[in-house]
Amino acid sequence: MNETQQIYEKEYIPYSIKWGRLTSLIGVAASFFPVIILSFVFKIVPAIDAIVAAATIRISACLVYYFIEPISFQPVLGIPATYMAFLSGNLSNLRVPCSSVAQKAAGVEEGTPQGAVLSTIGVAVSIVVNLAILTLGVLLGAQIIEMIPKDIVAALVYLVPALYGAMLMQMVLYAPKIAAISVPLSLITLAISKTGIFDSSMAILISVFGSIIIGRMLMNTGWLND
Amino acid sequence: MDYLKIANSGWMWFAVAIPMAVLAAQVYLLLTRSLKDGRRMGVSNDQIKSAVVASASAAIGPSVSILTGMVSLMVMMGAPIAWMRLSYIGAVMFEMTSADVGAQAVGVAFEQSSMTAEAFANGVWAMILGSVGWIIVSGLFTHKIDGLRTKLAGGNQKALPIITSAATLGCYCSLTFNKMYPVSIDNKNIYATIGGALAILVMTMINKKCKAKWINNWSATIAMIVGVAFAIIF
Fold first, then answer.
1. Which one, A14, B113, B188, B200, has the greatest CB density within 10 A?
2. Mutate which of A16, A36, A88, A90 to test chain B, going by most B C-beta atoms within 10 A?
3. ipTM confidence score
């Protein structure tokens, strides 16, 4: 094992798991602070059956995603960035693209120890930028933000699809042979999901792991050797 | 008392500052360690600088988009909750739905004129209880999921980059094609994706000829602008 691998496996990853997991689980408890303040300072406590009713609707609607999203995005983000991305939210429209953008700009290979480091830096930077912009928005107030011309707001909707197209092209150019599998696989999976046999979130999971498994099998045949 | 007075009170700012501090602590701990160990693993300062510039510029557009979505949440649930929920765990659609479901569960319509303090509080409960599942699962199982990836690699160091590239491709294929559905000339997302993809294609070709660092740093941001332009023009 070379020195980089040694540092990655014996120091960087154990540290990230220990502190990432701890802060995420503290984050779960901390997220209840607003309702604690509402209950104890303002004495506003909804009827328990109202809390349970609303929570049941939301949890049952999202339950599958709690599992599918970490499983689908973790191989893309790497361990440390996964903790941060899920604690900060806005995964697919911000954290995942920023992880890829950072790795590409630095010119590191995805899935390597350096890749995990740059992915973490990318996600961390996106958290800071997102927070700065939202804080500015809060300071300016809703009325000022509503003054942004409607045309610009409408155009902003296309930023994320454009970013996806860019990231996909980047990956296709980087790994064309794997793309030859992933692209048709995803198209077929998506087409099936639109018939309603399974949900579109399931389609991501199948695309990710289908690509991984077929890619791994092709690697054994030697087709990917170059 | 008007529920928005409570929702925008100093106490609510205090309440949301606590979870935000936990997020800040996590980012600080993992980022400083990444910088420190990254350098030991051969990551150069130039690479870090490029990554920061590229990621920061790419994050601006989507963040402004989140900001415009935050307005509706601010109007209904007050600034502190909107600010915290969109930097912590949540996303606009999820939070609006949760607040709506919470209000309805106490028998109140999700409109500013009819909202009560109880409906507001129940909306906050629904947001929190509906979203902690993601952090619990990612907090508890992230390293287990990584074990799966390592197992698929079967102890072959060379397999991990291939597996990760395949995963990333699968991920972006799915996200992109989902935006391109339904396939019709009215779906402007299609023009946006094509614009973004073409921009990257052209910039990669230019970059092969004349290794320009600025292209690496700004390609994602430029591609987003081109994609939006495509969607507006066509």
1. B200
2. A90
3. 0.94
Q: Which residues does chain B have within 8 Å of residue A190's beta carbon, measured at their own beta carbons?
A: 174, 177-178, 181
**CA dist., res. A210 & res. A184, Å (int):** 11
Range list of H helices, B78-212: 79-85, 92-105, 117-153, 159-179, 188-209
- How far apart are the C-alpha atoms of B227 and B98, rounded to whole Å? 32
CA distance B39 to A108: 13
CB contact under 8 A, A124 and B132: no
**Residues in chain B closer than 8 A to A145 (CB atoms):** 67-68, 70-71
Residues B104 and B190 in one domain: no
Q: d(Cα A52, Cα B13) in Å, to the nearest integer?
A: 26
Domain boundary among B155, B181, B209: B155
End-to-end CA distance of chain B: 51
A23, A95, A144, A201, best to mutate vs chain B, most B CBs in 10 Å: A23
pLDDT digits over B180-190, tens only?
Answer: 999 998 999 99
Number of helices and strands (H, E) in chain A? 12, 0
CB A209 within 8 A of CB A74: no
- pTM of the prediction? 0.95
Query: B220 is in which domain, residue-wise?
Result: 157-234
Q: Which of A70, A114, A130 minimises the CB distance to B87? A: A130
* Structural domains counted in chain A: 1
Tell me, yes or no, whether B27 and B106 share the same domain: yes
pLDDT in tens, A138-168: 999 888 888 888 888 889 999 999 999 999 9
CB contact at 8 A, A98 and A123? yes
The answer to whether residue A218 is domain-embedded is no
Does residue B110 share a domain with residue B70? yes
B44 compared with B1, residue with greater pLDDT: B44
Question: Residue A195 falls within a domain, yes or no?
Answer: no
Domain endpoint, select from B114, B129, B155: B155
The reply to whether A10 falls in a domain is yes
CA distance readout (Å), B168 to A76, A142, B139: 5, 37, 21
A76 contacts in B (CB within 8 Å)?
164, 167-168, 171
Omega prior to B182 cis, within 30 of 0: yes
